[in-house]
């Protein structure tokens, strides 16, 4: 079943084209990631899905409903956690949850949600006094309190410390397991790779690729790299003669072999036959960062540089 | 309906937790009047005022202090903060319209002004022996219409201010200007006629409040060319409607 469908979305602000042509489909029960640099059009796409922007052309369907025409109904069923939106400083955790749950026709029990998100201890704490991770958990809770079928989570872990990020990831998986379809917008490659069932890479207002994380990585590079060190002399022809090996580089006692297929076992086998003991034998795992560079021609932003931004 | 009530309840709690506003907007007018009432010279009744003491004539100014504080400083600052911090935007993604939080905010602010006025009128009577408003109905009308005019100005500020600090600056400017004409710095009886007359056209319409509170005090502060009571009320109502329309036209939700 299709939870979310975006078809040929186009949106401009005056002369500036924010989204050129974006299409993708999210199946029910998926965590669907959207990655892209700042200004790639992620936020505008998400805001259009949430009904905060009216597309210039193209169509959006949320559970078969139009976010502009069926505004009220979409708001009942779509939970949104927006980047850079907060709460009044003096509101307490329990008050915020109780208030937001009163907006919906069929909300979940906000006390259970508070427990699930580990906020029960903080129920009487004012928003201002919460840590970054606690604020983020509250924000997620508010997006889920209306018992949505689909939730949009935008830049979920920006500004969180590594432990809080990992905790948040675990939480998102729990939420998905409870049957909520999740649209995850992020510019952290590790986050997208870890959580998403499928990912859309958005670049320059267009979808550059859509696939599973492994699929994107495989599409971006068929080549693998194996590294090891040897302390004995070794003739490089032992490796260069192998059909799957494309290149061998030697720097001192460090070897780097580039090739295809089951490269690690091929190299290990050849070394064993040559009766050479290799140390630190390992495969350079290609990750989503490499795939991102391959699809967009630019490096993903590092977490340090991308604290807070307006896109 | 449930969401509306919850919103008012939460906004009330938030208001009460904002101690600066509670102190300056709600309690300070009473404190100011009682403080000035402790000065013996202000309790004397010189023959030219027909037996009225300075404090009797000045009492409505203390009332206006709270109204202005809430309408042009507190409300716009809260709304600008809600916009700046994406609270209005976040509400737009829920079935509750962000309008509902503005409405709740205004209900709470108005209630606080009523409490502030009631407290002041009661203690002025109990402690300083200042008689409660002589014409309660006219006084209530002048109070509500005057507050609406002030709130209209405050909402223009909330509509055009990009940030909460800009809203605060506009609020402070309006506060000082309105309080000057309201006689907080120079008693209105000592002002030249032109300044006193300007006070008839500026929210919240201090002359109407003074006249409805005490006809004698109203005669002293009125000018020769002054407008009749109901015309002044109509002017304030006009200000309220015009300012609200302007604010609505320029209001930005994000």
TrEMBL record, chain A:
Gene3D superfamilies: P-loop containing nucleotide triphosphate hydrolases. It is a peripheral membrane protein. Its main location: membrane. GO terms for cellular component: plasma membrane. Coiled coil: none annotated. Keywords: Antibiotic resistance, ATP-binding, Cell membrane, Membrane, Nucleotide-binding, Translocase, Transport. It is found in: Cell membrane. Residues 4-229 form the ABC transporter domain. One of its GO terms (biological process) is response to antibiotic. The keyword Ligase does not apply. GO terms for molecular function: ATP binding; ATP hydrolysis activity. This is ABC transporter ATP-binding protein.
